[in-house]
Amino acid sequence: PILAAIISFSTGLLSLLLFFIFFNEKSLPSLKTLSGLSWWQFTGGLLGAFFVTTVILSVKEIGSANMTALIVAGQVLGAIVIDHYGWLGLCSTPSVFFAFLGLF
Known about the structure:
104 residues, 5 helices, 0% strand
C-alpha cells in the first residue's frame, strides 16, 4: 500500500514538474519567497499523502462504494465549514439547511 502511494505521488510530482517546465512563464519561487508563506500552506502535501495512504489501506476493508461515499461526504462537510467561517480567504457564507442535504 505504501508503495502505491509513493508511485502515485511520484507520478504526480513528475507530471507537475513537466507541466511547470513547458507551460509556466514564471521562474521557481526563491527560498525567501517560500519562507514568507504561512505554515498551513505547507500542509497540503502532508495531508494529501495521509489521505491517499489512508484510502489505499481502508478501501479493502470497507469497499470502494463506501469509501467514495465517505470521501464525498467529507468534502461536502468541509466545504460547508469553510464557506461558513470564510476560511482560506473566501467570503463567509452562512450555512443553510439545504447545504446539509448534500450529506444525505
